[in-house]
Design goal:
The protein is α/β, with parallel strands linked by helices. It has a single domain, classed as Rossmann fold (3-Layer(aba) Sandwich). The chain has a 6-stranded mixed sheet, with helices on both faces. A 4-stranded antiparallel sheet has the order 2-1-4-5, with helices on one face. It starts with a strand and ends in a 5-residue tail after the last strand.
């Protein structure tokens, strides 16, 4: 069954610098991201993967080209509207987890809701629910330093899920984890985060997790050079 297109990049360029510092990081990138699928962006360091992820999420502006996410031309939005769009539609997961050390797991997960002015009691209740979803229901009052790397990444997954975004973008989410823990985290993406109306995009160097992608887009020198489909997940 065909999945709907969640996001589409058309002839996207991204340049940085001027004069002697000028560099063309993205070069006429064309890519479709489908709802209900986990898409991996792979390729060597410096090929433009993280820049592409940032353009897709509206964190970086394009130099040229179109970025369409759930029917919205993100590249045409003002910075304020981009911020609002991200808050409502996009969840983020990073390599370094980015948890606040002075907050409990539950409070860390609640942050996206609190930023959106959800009352604290309601935000905390929802945060605890998503910690249950990722298997950390018994760690809600723990601080990041009391959790293993894999557990911290699960907290980060719960934080990305708590506002129920339709697109989740992940930058090297398994790079700080050992192989077995990385696979557990990817299983969690597929089991708890991936839904028919939600898309997940993962930037990774980690070929140990390639099997978890529905679609693997390979980048080289700022371009998408190939796209492979994993029929095992169709």
């Amino acid at each position: 069954m065909e999945h709907e297109i969640a996001a589409k990049l058309v002839d996207v360029d991204k340049n940085f610098g001027l004069g002697n510092t000028f560099v063309k990081v993205l070069k006429k990138v064309n890519l479709e991201i489908h709802s209900g699928e986990l898409t991996l962006l792979v390729g060597p360091s410096g090929c433009g993967k993280t820049t592409l992820l940032s353009v897709l999420a509206g964190i970086l502006d394009t130099t040229d080209g179109e970025v369409n996410v759930f029917g919205t031309r993100v590249d045409k939005l003002s910075q304020a509207k981009k911020t609002s769009f991200r808050r409502k539609n996009i969840g983020f997961i990073f390599q370094q987890f980015n948890l606040l050390p002075t907050l409990t797991a539950a409070d860390n997960v609640a942050i996206p809701l609190l930023i959106s002015k959800v009352p604290y009691r309601e935000a905390l209740k929802k945060a605890k629910y998503y910690l249950e979803v990722v298997g950390l229901g018994d760690r809600v009052t723990f601080y990041p330093t009391q959790l293993s790397g894999g557990q911290q990444q699960r907290v980060a997954i719960a934080r990305a899920l708590v506002a129920e975004p339709k697109l989740i973008v992940c930058d090297e989410p398994t790079a700080s984890l050992d192989g077995e823990t990385g696979k557990i985290v990817m299983e969690m993406f597929r089991q708890t985060a991936l839904k028919r109306d939600r898309a997940i995009v993962v930037v990774t160097h980690d070929n140990r997790i390639f099997e978890y992608g529905d679609r693997i887009a390979e980048m080289l020198d700022g371009r998408i050079v190939s796209i492979h489909e994993n029929k095992n997940h169709k």
